[in-house]
Amino acid sequence: MKFTAAQIAGILQGEVVGNPNAEVYKLAKIEEGTEGSLTFLANPKYNNYIYSTQATITIVNHTFEPEQEISTTLIKVEDAYQSFSQLLEYYNQVKLMKSGIEQPSMISENVTYGADLYLGSFCYLGKNVTIGKNVKIYPNSFIGDNVTIGDDCVFFAGVRIYSETVIGNNCIVHSGSIIGSDGFGFAPQENGSYRKIPQIGNVIIEDDVEIGACTTIDRATLGSTIIRKGVKLDNHIQVAHNVEIGENTVIAAQTGIAGTTKIGKNCLIGGQVGFAGHLVIGDGVKIQAQSGIGKNLEAGEVVQGSPAFNYGDFAKSFVIFRNLPKMAADLEALKNDNNNSK
Known about the structure:
342 residues, Udp-n-acetylmuramoylalanyl-d-glutamate--2,6- Diaminopimelate Ligase, Chain: A, domain 1, UDP N-Acetylglucosamine Acyltransferase, domain 1, 10-stranded parallel sheet, 4 helices, 40 strands
């Protein structure tokens, strides 16, 4: 897929300085640019690369003026970084612009779907599934009975959506993720065995949610596990039954959230954080990576450690902890001096 400088400038509302017919078909860092590639210059510390780059087209801020001769065609915009991001988004949309139903695939009875559906080969749609318009479901995906999916969603290859799940508009689910699997519910018996507790709830995912690869979101025992609008989940996250995650909260990889915990909106949660069950985490909480959360947190708290406590106190304590070997040696020396003086 090729684009000319004039076409790109039209998309970005920019100005071409150089050859408007210059063509590109790939993207590159400015220091690695080769013929046929498009790059950008936003940070002044990389200015020297624009004089040596072999990239065919470079997006720059409108204030940039070259001090030496350059070979690359410039596209001047208000903000080079934002414009390049916009272009990446546009490119991704074009790349994902698939439609049609590939074979073999299985569509069960009473399935309805909107315009421009893409259903990849070896996909399965269960009974009574409802799918909005412009939805892309890549090969080897499973959509269970009575699932509802909104408009403009993308499900990459190998996604599994269990029955009764409700997914809003403009959601992205990456490969290997499982939504709606049974919650971890077992009742201990007198003989030491465990009886499985039926999990008859569902999962609700609101609009503008993105779920990383190999993340699992369990259905509720009763009621719903809820992922609110704008939540972003990284890869390899476990969300247990009846958890609720508030709007625009971001959670990094390998975090585990035990059952019935409620996390507020606009929280920032680092990787490998572990949450105990039945907790309430306030809005705007920030949790550093590898923290263990065993109690409720008030809105706006910043914590670290396992068990986690105030971030500032943790940083001070870590300085002491790191110096413990030296402190122990100093204490031993003082004891020896004291014994020798007797």
